[in-house]
Specification:
Rossmann fold; disordered N terminus; six-stranded parallel beta sheet; globular; 372 residues; alpha/beta; 18% strand; GMP Synthetase, Chain A, domain 3
């Protein structure tokens, strides 16, 4: 594994060769990375096939506990990302391992969530019960589209009666074609708030899931690919692995800029097609930072940063150019500049635009756009 060198600002070094050639295994999150809802992120299945063609192996590490590894593998294969159940690690499996260690074989557990939760518990040698009246020793709560009041009520009663509350993950939201929707963390919060008991969380960012995927694949230099700062990126850092954040899920530029140090990625891409291209470095040129055609420097007065866009005919270029179609060079430079100034804490960034090109890009991101 490859933790960042001491003193290195995340994103600053880039990757001069495509990550698919620099890392031997990609540990991929699923929701928001490979697919959103039932459909693949456009271009990603072909990109993963291309990454495999140059020798990169793939493992799938998901906090979504609703489905079994077999079901996940079938879905991936239907999306033209061939996978077997042995390639998939779910947070239900992680939770079952935790509970088995707490209770031992034959422990009685009440599952809350999709079928993947109960299946993982049975596979771990635990006894699945259906109600609080059957005296479960633990409640394992994972995501499921059918979770409603009845299941939550049974969980509350069981926890009040002394059952240990274990959550497969605490993701507050899940990505969808209609935007973020309630995730398992939102439902876990209901049980926590009613019972007053803090649950044990088994999934990412706990490093166990990534470590298990490394063990299965024999990875020597893994790269975690995810869309969430609080699970994928923090989980990678805690596991000692490099990370690639993709913007095809729940994280936007504002959230990324405000990331705490443990949640700052090593690489950044619009989506998982970023595995196939080099990632430029960010250069510190003395009170200014550059990446490609974009420059960031301290604004006059206060703590703001000023973003200057590429220059073209008449001194103004559109925010999206052929050399930088998605503004990632600008975002990389902003992140490195802001994180250099705030190395130990995560705070929102205030950014001003030096020109219309920068202003258009900042407006797309929902950040401050006031020209100098």
């Amino acid at each position: 594994m490859n933790p960042p060198a001491a003193g290195t600002v995340p994103l600053s070094s880039g990757c001069p060769t495509p990550p698919s050639e620099s890392y031997d295994v990609a540990l991929l999150d699923l929701d928001g990375v490979v697919y959103v809802g039932p459909d693949a992120v456009p271009g990603v299945p072909a990109a993963l096939a291309a990454a495999r063609a140059v020798g990169m192996r793939l493992g799938f590490v998901t906090n979504n506990a609703a489905r079994t590894p077999d079901q996940v593998a079938e879905h991936l294969t239907a999306l033209q990302v061939p996978a077997g159940s042995e390639d998939v690690i779910t947070s239900s499996q992680a939770a079952a391992t935790v509970v088995s260690g707490l209770l031992g074989p034959g422990g009685r557990v009440l599952p809350v969530g999709g079928p993947g939760v109960a299946a993982a518990l049975r596979a771990a040698g635990l006894v699945v019960v259906g109600t609080a009246g059957e005296q479960p020793e633990a409640v394992v709560q994972g995501y499921g589209t059918e979770v409603g009041w009845a299941q939550l009520a049974e969980a509350v009663v069981a926890v009040r009666n002394g059952a240990r509350h274990v959550a497969t993950n605490a993701d507050a939201t899940i990505p969808s074609p209609r935007g973020p929707l309630p995730g398992n963390g939102a439902m876990v919060g209901v049980v926590r708030d009613v019972t007053g008991q803090t649950p044990l969380v088994a999934g990412k960012p706990d490093p166990a899931m990534h470590a298990e995927c490394v063990r299965r694949t024999g990875a020597r230099r893994p790269l975690v690919v995810g869309d969430r700062l609080d699970t994928d990126i923090e989980g990678a850092r805690r596991a000692g692995a490099d990370s690639l954040l993709v913007l095809s899920g729940v994280t936007d530029p504002g959230l990324l800029l405000a990331a705490e140090p443990v949640r700052r990625p090593d690489l950044l891409a619009a989506d998982a097609t970023g595995l196939l291209v080099p990632h430029p470095r960010v250069d510190d040129i003395g009170r200014a930072w550059t990446c490609g055609d974009w420059t960031v420097r301290p604004a006059e007065g206060g703590d703001a940063l000023e973003l200057a866009g590429p220059r073209g005919d008449g001194g103004v270029a559109p925010a999206r150019t052929g050399a930088n179609p998605d503004g990632l060079e600008a975002l990389r430079a902003l992140c490195v500049a802001h994180w250099t100034r705030h190395p130990d804490d995560g705070v929102p960034a205030r950014v001003v635009a030096a020109d219309p090109a920068a202003g258009a890009l900042l407006a797309d991101w929902g950040l401050t756009t006031r020209p100098r």
